[in-house]
Input
Amino acid sequence: MNYRSIWISDLHLGSRHSQAESLLAFLKNVECEHLYLVGDIVDGWELRRRWWWDTHANTVVQKVLRLNRKQTQVIYLIGNHDEFLGDFLGLDIGGVALAERIIHEAADGRRYLVMHGHQLDGLVYFNRLLERVGSRLYDWILEFNLHFNRIRRRLGFGYWSVSAQLKLQAKSAVRYITRYEEGMVHMARQAGVSGIICGHIHRAEMRRVDDILYLNCGDWVESCTALVEDFQGSIHLIRLTESGFETVALERQSPSAPEPQGGPACGDPIPVRDHGLPVSTAPQHA
Output
């Protein structure tokens, strides 16, 4: 599979819940001119708590560096779990550029603000302790999910994400996701771009909000998704299923389609929502 650009986020290498092996299956079958690592690639929080770095994590790093040597431009956008790299912003490490945010110009001329997205989360700045408590609770849920799915596989059932289901059932989580998406769209509008590409909340999604495209590339802990750009400038979601990878395009869903219920996990449908006016093909200038 040959693409102009690929965006992946929230690998959380260094956590035992990282789906690094699934990501390798994707990376081994793609080529691209631009690869964006949209934050939380390495889980510094988890590594400080306990060391967990397996051969799959090593292979992911080696694969990314090999892609960089093959003339793929690799850009690493720092997230909150890999904030320890903040001291190296603006530098190239092994040919990989480090940045907090960047503007991507697509093949059709549209411009996208690319950032991890934790910049909108006030807890990052004002209550680090509470954020880490929430992260620890999330780790416990993922641990339960790991053992739960081992039992499901032995019984012949497919993967089911407990944490994704819990998040969708919690009204406070739904409100947080809504505020997050609205905030990211506002940042894109302020930057004068056509859309925003982000991660952070582990929820893959593509939707229009008036004149702005909100694109979240998901994660490689739960949803196992990536965003890709073809050579005409169209952006699609790639998702992992039990039979391989499949593509969901934004244009496949009409504005009148019903609002999807539930959230993506590995093998689940990706929500693709279209709200409001079509996005102009002419680039906006920041």
Remarks:
- The two ends are 32 Å apart (CA to CA).
- Helices lie at 20-27, 44-49, 55-69, 123-126, 128-154, 162-169, 171-191.
- Confidence is low (pLDDT under 50) at residues 123-130, 251-286.
- The longest helix spans residues 128-154.
